[in-house]
Write a structure and sequence with these properties.
The chain is mainly alpha-helical. The chain has four helices and two strands.
Length: 264
C-alpha cells in the first residue's frame, strides 16, 4: 500500500473512489490532449525557426543591396537628394498591421504591411528627375523589400518567443500530469480499494462470528431441551397416553349392550 506522501488524503469510501476514478480518467484525457498540443507547437516552432534563419539570410543580402543602391543614388543624384526626400516626408505611407493566428490554442501575433494612400508617395516619384532618377527609384524599391523582410522577421521572432513560452508551459503541465498527478490518483485508488477490501473482510469475519454464536446458542438450547426430557423420563413422570381412557370393563356385560340375537 502506498504511503500518504504518494497519494491524496481522502476518506476511503465507495463515493470517493468513484470521484477519484473520474478525476483519473479526466487527467489521462488531458495528458493525451496536452501531448498532442505540445507536438503541434513543436512542429510549428521548428517551421518558424527555419523561416527565421532563411529570412535573416535574405535580409542580410537585402540590406547590403539597399545600401549599395542608396550609395549609387547619392553618387548619381547628389547628396542633396537624401535631405530633400527626408524633408518632404510628412507622414508614414506604410503602417504595420497586427493580427493573431491560432496555433493549437495559442494566439500568435502576425505582422503585415499596410500601405496607405498618400500624396507624398506620388511626389516621391518626382525626386531625382533631373539626374539619377532611376537610381533613386531602384534604392526605394530595394528598401521597400528590406522593410518587408524586417516586418516578416519581426513577426516570426514574436511568434518564436510566444511559442517557446507556450511549449515550456505545456511541457510543465504534461510532466506534472505524467509524474505527479496521475501516479498520486492511481495510488489513491489503490489505497481506497485496499481499505474497502479490509473493511469487507472485517465485516465478513464479524458476520461469521455472529453466525457462529447463534449456532452455539441454538445447539446449547437443544442440548438443554434434551437434558430436560431425559430428566423427566428418569423421574417416571412420563405421561400414559391411555391414562384417561378409564376401565372399559366387559362390553358384553354392560346393560343395554347385549345382543338379543345371540342364542347361546
Amino acid at each position: 500500500m502506498s504511503g500518504a506522501g504518494n497519494r491524496y488524503v481522502v476518506v476511503p469510501t465507495v463515493t470517493v473512489l468513484a470521484v477519484i476514478k473520474n478525476r483519473l480518467t479526466g487527467a489521462k484525457k488531458g495528458h493525451q490532449l496536452l501531448k498532442k498540443k505540445a507536438d503541434a507547437l513543436n512542429m510549428r516552432f521548428r517551421q518558424i525557426l527555419k523561416r527565421i534563419m532563411e529570412t535573416k539570410e535574405k535580409m542580410g543580402v537585402s540590406l547590403r543591396e539597399s545600401n549599395f543602391a542608396l550609395t549609387e543614388a547619392k553618387y548619381t543624384a547628389g547628396d542633396s537628394v537624401k535631405h530633400t526626400i527626408v524633408d518632404s516626408v510628412k507622414e508614414a505611407s506604410v503602417r504595420v498591421a497586427a493580427r493573431e493566428d491560432n496555433v493549437a490554442g495559442v494566439k500568435v501575433p502576425v505582422f503585415e504591411r499596410n500601405d496607405l494612400d498618400s500624396s507624398q508617395e506620388k511626389n516621391s516619384e518626382l525626386f531625382g528627375l533631373s539626374k539619377g532618377g532611376q537610381k533613386v527609384s531602384s534604392a526605394k524599391d530595394s528598401f521597400q523589400k528590406t522593410m518587408d523582410l524586417m516586418i516578416e522577421l519581426a513577426s516570426l521572432q514574436c511568434a518564436f518567443v510566444t511559442l517557446d513560452e507556450a511549449i515550456k508551459t505545456t511541457n510543465r503541465r504534461v510532466n506534472a500530469l505524467e509524474h505527479t498527478i496521475i501516479p498520486k490518483l492511481e495510488n489513491t485508488i489503490l489505497y481506497i480499494k485496499g481499505e474497502l477490501d479490509e473493511l469487507e473482510r472485517e465485516e465478513f469475519f464479524r458476520l461469521k462470528k455472529i453466525q457462529g454464536k447463534k449456532q452455539e446458542a441454538k445447539e446449547r438450547q437443544e442440548k438443554e431441551d434434551k437434558e430436560k426430557e431425559l430428566a423427566t423420563l428418569s423421574n417416571g413422570k412420563q405421561v400414559d397416553p391411555f391414562a384417561g381412557a378409564g376401565n372399559l370393563g366387559d362390553l358384553l356385560s354392560s346393560p343395554g349392550l347385549t345382543d338379543n340375537d345371540i342364542i347361546f
